[in-house]
Hints:
The protein is of the alpha+beta class. The chain has helices spanning about 50-55, 75-85, 90-95, and strands at about 1-10, 15-25, 25-35, 35-40, 45-50, 60-65, 65-75. The longest helix is centred in the last third of the chain and has 11 residues, at about 75-85.
Amino acid sequence: MSVETFKKENSYGFLRFVKFLKVGKRIKLSVDLIEGEIRGRVAEQVVLIDNDFIETSSKVRIRIGEKELEVFIPSYKDFLISKIVSARPSDVREI
């Protein structure tokens, strides 16, 4: 996988890994890692990744190339809220 996007600010960070696969047709697989807060389209739209967010998440290990990372997967409720706040076209389709 390669890094498509990396942004690190004071209160949040965002990293997107991508890989193109050929499965009948060419598809783009992406993995987003978010730290601190989930940012919406405008400054007022922020979901904090606080203790409550972490406590309702599931901790899993994922392998990216040669590395294995331990990450938190948000609860369904928090995942849905993050999709609504992000409001990217792909998020709207998924909702």
